[in-house]
Design goal:
The chain contains three helices and no strands. It is mostly helical. The chain has one domain. The longest helix has 23 residues. The mean pLDDT is about 80.
Length: about 70
C-alpha cells in the first residue's frame, strides 16, 4: 500500500457533472475512506481491502447486468 492518494478530477467530474457541492462531498468521502484504509492497514486489519474488493465485484456485476439488458 502506498503512502499517497491521487484524486483524478476527471473521474469525479464524470460521476458528478458540474455539481461543485457534490464534488466536495465526494472528495471528502473518498479521502476519509482512503485514510481509514491506510490506518487500518498500519494496524494490520484487512477489512478495508476486503470491503473494496466486494464493492468492486458488485459494481462490475451490475455493469454486466445492465449491459445484457440493452
Amino acid at each position: 500500500m502506498g503512502r499517497r492518494v491521487v484524486l483524478y478530477y476527471g473521474s469525479f467530474a464524470a460521476l458528478l457533472g458540474d455539481s461543485s457541492v457534490g464534488l466536495v462531498r465526494e472528495i471528502r468521502r473518498t479521502v476519509r475512506h482512503e485514510l481509514r484504509d491506510h490506518l487500518e492497514s498500519l494496524a494490520g486489519v484487512d477489512d478495508p481491502a476486503r470491503e473494496d474488493m466486494e464493492f468492486l465485484a458488485r459494481f462490475r456485476e451490475g455493469r454486466r447486468l445492465r449491459g445484457r439488458e440493452r
